[in-house]
What we know:
The chain is of the alpha+beta class. It has helices at residues 11-30, 51-67, 99-103, 175-189, 201-209, 223-235, 255-259, and strands spanning 40-41, 48-49, 72-75, 79-81, 90-97, 110-116, 122-129, 134-139, 144-148, 151-155, 166-168, 194-196, 215-219, 239-241, 262-266.
Amino acid sequence: MSGAGAALISPAELLEVAREAAAAGAQVLAGRNGDALQVSNKGDAGDWVTAFDVAAENAVRDVIAAARPGDSITGEEHGTTRPAEASGYRWSIDPLDGTTNFIRNIVYYGTSVAVADADGAWLAGVVNAPALGRIYYAARGQGAWLEEAGTRTRLEGPVPGRKGQILATGFNYDPLVRSEQAAQFAGLLEGFADVRRLGSAALDLCMVADGTHDAFGERGLNEHDFSAGALIAEEAGCWVRRPRLTSPLDGGPTDEERLDAWTCAASLELSGKFPL
């Protein structure tokens, strides 16, 4: 591992912190109150933020900072926090993936927490979806798992070759980008029986891992959208493509860089369905 001051810690130990942190964020979301959302817009039409996004990120950060004070943190709402003597580990937080769903009381939303080492390898990730009662999680090299209704299930990805395959995807808030995506959509859908657009990339990736979706592909995601879900899909044995985006520690990607990149997960047989 590179990075001055980096002390080795196992992915399993990091997963325990990630689970606790994601649970803290999900607990905030579980207190959803339609009269206390305090909704505002972050710029693009449809890109919303609520008081719960901010409170959930605060809760996640508090857990990580208490357990791992030397680690850097990058989050959707509060940006980057980097200690003077950084450990080399970095956490990526999306406190509320699926904010529009949350506002409208559609159940597909959750808190996503992941951690990478100094070389950028993702080591542990959790997506905690309180309205669904599901906790998806993975540690590198240890498989992917779902906890639901007191049952723990190992995830093994989609069933290869099944009929009626479903593609999950999403669309950008920018009207021009969305028009380009719409133009590509027919080609992307070719060979699939149907499509789902659930409004949470983190959960879409997890639902490839658990075999609900056969494939997921979306252009223009931020790192915090896919950091945990992509690791979970990968550990479930799926083919995964992550964008090679500029790290938030280096200022993050430009809009052009981000919008040019695809995040994808599928069974290996479907890997060729997505644009390069």
